[in-house]
Design a protein that fits this description.
By secondary structure, the protein is of the alpha/beta class. The chain is built from 23 helices and 11 strands. Helix 2 links the parallel strand 2 and strand 3. Helix 1 packs across helix 2 and helix 13 runs parallel beside helix 19.
Length: about 525
């Protein structure tokens, strides 16, 4: 353990990939309890709900907590930590209010349509999908509406004046619909002087701090005796929302670097840090790796399906790309080759798994289950929606034995004949997902896959680098392709510095095999070639 005694005056912990930041925070929580700190006077903070839930689960597993202390009371997002005082204030103004009604994706679409401003956020797994205007507005809010601090592209038509106009229009929209943003909750906490009633505050993923969050933590430092920050400033990959490595680096507290990565081999660490040294002026922490033994190779995308099939036997395989549009191309290639995979962009979902398995049963003369029938009805044009109640009850009751009579009542024999002839995508329903479904189904059939199961699908993940942050796998394929806008932007030193942090994250996910996928001729980030 890095800490022989609990750091009562606070600490700043630098943890590179695989060094155990979260584990260290949990050990410090246990150590604090041993030193006499009550668990209800300590709080874990992070920046995403899923991470807060995961932290609470791990704490409850490793620490014996009082029965009356709920999980959600010990680990929260910074927004949820500030929610109650904001709600109490609103309750005084509007006694009938029952919750803070935050803007949803539907609200943002409605505002964009009504105002004419393209204000579309990304989602929690990929914030990079936000529209440029929304990202710039988010920066402005993180700077407490100091529009002059927002980083704007020289070629952009977004200006401080436009941001001011968008802000005014949005506040009017929110007022008319009784809506709020999470920025409003943090602003209220800062302006009202609110501070959590705790003795020890732990902040995980501290590199994701925005200016607004940094201001809050600075205020809280005056009242909370011990604040412990943990993070990796080289993984600051949300600059478009106002995050900056400088906030963690400038935080005044005793510094500790977690010394050993249990994930990274020396070769992977050297390659990742060469990007940092070549494109930024940020210091690189000195750590011990697993030593030599990490495999690195550069391959073309044509080779990735067969290499994926080879490495599945060793454990999970990641395919990571810079954007969702590139992930879509990766997904198409894997699907055509019969590789099963999961992922937000075109991965196999539960409905597709059940539909494929149901069709394969019908090809063999076996009746599908009720769940598989429903899935087929969603993916194909069938008679399912026109069935009489008696037939529907038989199909949907797992205790009933489905016969060929029920099968033919749902799916005409002409369609079944085509399926048995190998045309398993005959009569697929139309829609945005139909092309990808056809690729996956036909690819799986060509690969001789008789049944798709969720475990096999879960062995391969296709995702963006941003979505893969915090994850690891034995084998990773990292696609170095950039979209045109990003490729042009890295001519600027500040944009190259920001982009380098993204690729540092991308290059530190593999625990054994790292493939750089380089289709020469594409616009690409300049990852140094490694010859092994």
């Amino acid at each position: 353990m890095l800490f022989p005694v609990f750091p009562e005056s606070g600490a700043k912990i630098y943890g590179t990939p695989g060094t155990g930041k979260t584990w260290t925070l949990i050990q410090l929580f246990k150590m604090a309890m041993e030193q006499g700190h009550a668990p209800d006077r300590m709080l874990m903070l992070t920046y995403r709900k899923s991470m807060a839930v995961g932290m609470a689960e791990r704490l409850s597993e490793e620490v014996e907590l009082p029965r009356d202390l709920k999980r959600e009371q010990i680990a929260k997002t910074i927004h949820s930590a500030c929610w109650y005082p904001h709600f109490s204030h609103l309750k005084e103004l509007h006694p009938n209010i029952e919750k803070i009604d935050y803007m949803t994706i539907a609200d943002w679409y409605n505002f964009s349509r009504e105002s004419g401003y393209q204000m579309l956020p990304g989602d929690e797994t990929d914030f990079t999908q936000a529209s440029p205007l929304y990202a710039a507005y988010s920066q402005a809010r993180s700077y407490r509406r100091d529009y002059s601090k927002v980083e704007l592209e020289s070629s952009s038509d977004i200006s401080p004046e436009l941001l001011r106009q968008v802000d005014e229009a949005l506040q009017e929209f929110k007022g008319g619909h009784k809506k709020y943003e999470y920025f409003d909750t943090l602003d209220f906490a800062a302006d009202s002087g609110y501070c959590p009633n705790v003795e020890v505050l732990y902040v995980d993923e501290a590199q994701d701090m925005t200016a607004q969050m940094f201001q809050l933590l600075t205020q809280w430092k005056k009242e909370i005796p011990c604040i412990i920050l943990a993070g990796d400033y080289l993984q600051t990959i949300y600059p478009f929302y106002g995050a900056s490595p400088e906030y963690m680096l400038s935080w005044n507290a005793p510094e500790f670097t977690l010394p050993t990565s249990r994930r990274l081999y020396a070769e992977h660490w050297k390659l990742a840090t060469s990007i940092i040294k070549g494109c930024t002026n940020y210091p690189v922490p000195k750590i011990e790796t697993k030593g030599k033994g990490g495999y690195i190779n550069t391959v073309s995308s044509d080779n990735t399906p067969e290499l994926t099939k080879k490495h599945i036997a060793e454990g999970e395989v990641f395919h990571m790309a810079r954007t969702n549009s590139i992930c879509k191309k990766v997904s198409e290639r894997l699907a055509d080759s019969g590789v099963l995979f999961k992922g937000k962009v075109s991965g196999w979902d539960g409905t597709e798994i059940n539909a494929y398995n149901g069709v394969m049963k019908i090809r063999k003369g076996v009746a599908p289950s009720g769940t598989e029938f429903k899935a087929i009805a969603k993916c194909y044009k069938t008679n399912y929606g026109r069935l009489d109640k008696k037939t529907l009850d038989i199909i949907e009751d797992p205790k009933q034995k489905t016969t060929s009579k029920e099968v033919y009542s749902v799916i005409p024999w002409t369609i079944i004949h085509e399926w048995k002839q190998g045309n398993i995508c005959y009569n697929v329903a139309g829609g945005k997902k139909s092309d990808m479904l056809i690729r996956k189904f036909e690819g799986a059939l060509r690969a001789g896959i008789e049944e798709v199961d969720e475990k096999a699908v879960g062995m391969v993940t296709v995702c963006t680098i941003h979505a893969g942050k915090g994850l690891e796998a034995p084998t990773q394929f990292l696609y170095n392709e950039l979209n045109t806008a990003t490729y042009k932007s890295i001519d600027q030193a500040d944009k190259l510095r920001e982009e380098a942090l993204v690729w540092y994250v991308g290059l530190t996910r593999a625990s054994k095999n790292l493939y750089i996928v380089d289709d020469f001729g594409n616009k690409a980030f300049p990852i140094p070639r490694v010859v092994m």
